[in-house]
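Researcher: If convenient, please comment on what follows.
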Amino acid sequence: MNEMLRVDQLQKVFTMHQTGQKRIVGCDHISFSVRKGEFLGITGKSGAGKSTILKCLYRTYLPTGGHIFYASQQFGAIDLASADERKIIVIREKEISYVSQFLNIMPRVTALEFVMESLLELGETVSSAKKKAEEMLDHFIIPEMLWDTFPRTFSGGEKLRLNLARAMVRQSKLLLLDEPTASLDQASKETVRERINELKQNGTTMIGIFHDLDFMDSVVDHNYKLESGVLKEV
C-alpha cells in the first residue's frame, strides 16, 4: 500500500490576544503516517489536542509548524500545512471529508439537499445524487419523513448521522472523523461500522478520534494515544 498521509513534527499554537498575547499549545511534535485504505484511531483525554490535530489536517486551523505531506489526486504530493487556500478549497471539495459532532448547515436546506450537495460538488447529476443521498439517509436510519425537513429540529444523534451520511456518500480519498459515535445508540453504531468497512474496502483512508474504545478497536488498523502532548502508537 502507498503512503497517503505523513505528518512530521506538526505544531499548533494559539495566541490569545485578549489576555496579553498568552500562548496556548494545541498540539506539538506530532508525527505519524497512514497508508491508503488504512484507518488510524487517536485516543486521549478531553483537551489533549486530538481535535486540533484533525482540524490542522483539514486546514480549519493553519499549523504553526511542521509538515502534512498528502498524496493529492489533484496536485500530486502537497504539504497541507503550507499549501495556498485555493488548493485547499479544491482538495476539500474533491478529496478530503471531515465529520464533526456538530451540524453546520444553512437554515433553509433540507436533510436530503444537504447530502445531495456533497455529491453535486463532485459533478454528479441531480438524479444520481438524489438516489445515492436517499440510499445513504436510509442506511443511517434517518426516517423518510425527515428527508424534506430542516435539520435544526433534529436530535443530536440524528444530526450526527446526517453529518456521517453527507461525508460518507462521497467515497473520499481521506476521511477525518471527530467522535463519529458520540451520541449514537448501538443500532446506529452498527450502521457506522458497516459503512466504515465498505469505505476501507474501496480504498478510503481514515483518521478518527474516539472515546468509545470498543468501537474504535473494531474498525481501526492502528491505535495512537495522545498523552501529555506525546502521540504514541499503542
Observations:
- The chain has a mean pLDDT of 92.
- Residues 48 and 163 are 24 Å apart (CA to CA).
